[in-house]
Amino acid sequence: MSLRDVTFDEALELVRSHAVRTEAEAVDLDDLPGRRLAQEIRSRIDVPAFTNSAMDGFALRAADAAAGAPLPLAGESRAGAPLAGGLPPGAAVRISTGAIIPDGADAVLRREDAEDLGDRVRPRVAVEPGAHVRHRGEGGRRGDVLLQSGHRVRAHEVAAIAAVGTARALCDRRPRVVVLASGDEVIGPDRPLGPGQVYDANRPGVAAQARAAGADVLAAGLVPDHRAATVAAIAAALDAPVAPDLLVTTGGVSVGDHDHLRPAFAELGVREVFFGAQIRPGHPLWLGRRGEQVVLGLPGNPVSATVCFHAFARPLLGHDDAWDRRMPLAVTHRSKIPRTELLRCAERDGALVPMAHQGSHEVSGLAGATHLAVVPAEAEVVDAGETVRSLRLT
Fold first, then answer.
1. Residues of the chain whose pLDDT is less than 70?
2. CATH number of the structural domain 325-392
3. Would you say 174 and 215 are in contact if contact means Cβ atoms under 8 Å apart?
4. DSSP classification of residue 364
5. Domain 24-47+138-172 sits in which CATH superfamily?
6. Is the Cβ–Cβ distance between 309 and 321 less than 8 Å?
7. How far apart are CA 256 and CA 236, in angstroms?
């Protein structure tokens, strides 16, 4: 049974419950950033894998350095070329950062704390046992969990994954997305505007947001305001040889004479989950499902489409964005309608400054925005300094 005019939080819960699911695939290190792990990553080695030096200097017994007398040098341990054999009694070994500590040594004397005499070294300071020594396994043991299943890999984490001996990781396949924009008035930026025409903002905008959310965009098409053409375009998208997991449409989802998407969805067997949300911008929001495929109908105004994609399509693509962070509004805000408002804001000095243009048609209100702020439907006035729920725009 379809729901109508759901609240903001109800819409969030509904899209989260209908998030697309994809099969797992092995992914190389170079392609890991932004991917969601389908299996935990465990360390294949102790970290570090061997006891080594944290400094360039001399490996020795701490007790031998205490006297301050010159110690004979019994060779060198370099990174990748350890000393053959152990440390003779009363001697020292040249050592570089990362090189294996020879058997018998329990400390490293830093180069700057020593007088290098060529074939001998004179300690200038005493050292404690364990000084500048990295012990095997102190950073983690073989079999320890490095990252949990479901974690979305960040670029800086690839080094950690590689360092524990993992060359490929099992990840969820990237969701496949098709974007369809509707409207006879929409034209490309390579043509001058005619009477009543607007430039195509939704196709490039929504496609960019989908890619930023980790999806593969299969196609981005434009559909005229014609019933048969709308049905044909949706059918071609949903039934393509490489079919989308998520179909995102913009415009044509309301109740006007030229809004053909909802009857087209019904004709093609897409079950309506909900229609309409008590939010501004984005009231004519639509969610449907056909088998494993999910369809999200966004409003046609570019601001509404952009805001609603960030709020509702990202959860469909597996992003568990939290709306529980609270930040203060920098200025007093007065609501004009009894709907939850999603204000475009810029962060300044830890507070949210609403953009000057908040209309669903005012695209300049997107430029420079860093956050969405949630003004509850019941809040007629939010005073300056009062905190509201917020989400960073990415």
1. none
2. 2.40.340.10
3. yes
4. G
5. Molybdopterin biosynthesis moea protein, domain 2 (3.90.105.10)
6. no
7. 24
For the chain, residues classed under CATH 3.90.105.10 are: 24-47+138-172
Of 321, 306, 351, the residue nearest 333 (C-alpha): 351
pLDDT (tens digit, 9 = 90+) per residue, 278-324?
A: 999 999 999 999 999 999 999 999 999 999 999 999 999 999 898 99
Neighbouring-strand partners of residue 42: 145
- Tell me what pLDDT residue 172 has: 98
Residues contacting 146, CB < 8 A, separation 6+: 40, 41, 42, 43, 140, 160, 161, 164
* Segments of the chain assigned to CATH 3.40.980.10: 3-22+174-316
- Which residues contact residue 245 at a Cβ distance below 8 angstroms, ignoring those fewer than 6 apart? 20, 22, 175, 176, 177, 292, 293, 294
Whole-number Å distance between alpha carbons of 375 and 333 = 9
Supply the pTM of this predicted model: 0.87
Instruction: Write down the CATH superfamily of domain 52-134.
Output: Molybdopterin biosynthesis moea protein, domain 3. (2.170.190.11)
DSSP assigned state of 140: B
Report how far residue 248's alpha carbon sits from residue 254's, in angstroms, rounded to the nearest whole number: 15
**28 within 8 A of 207, measured Cβ to Cβ:** no
Instruction: Tell me the β-bridge partners of 134.
Output: 52
Q: How far apart are CA 183 and CA 224, in angstroms?
A: 5
pLDDT at 142: 97
Looking up tokens 């960073």, which residue turns up? 392
CATH fold label, 3-22+174-316:
Molybdenum Cofactor Biosythetic Enzyme; Chain A (3.40.980)
So what's the pLDDT on residue 239? 97
pLDDT value, residue 351: 98
Q: What is the DSSP string of 8-42?
A: HHHHHHHHHHT-----EEEEEGGG-TTPBBSS-EE
**Rounded to an integer, what distance in angstroms lies between the CA atom of residue 22 and that of residue 333?**
42
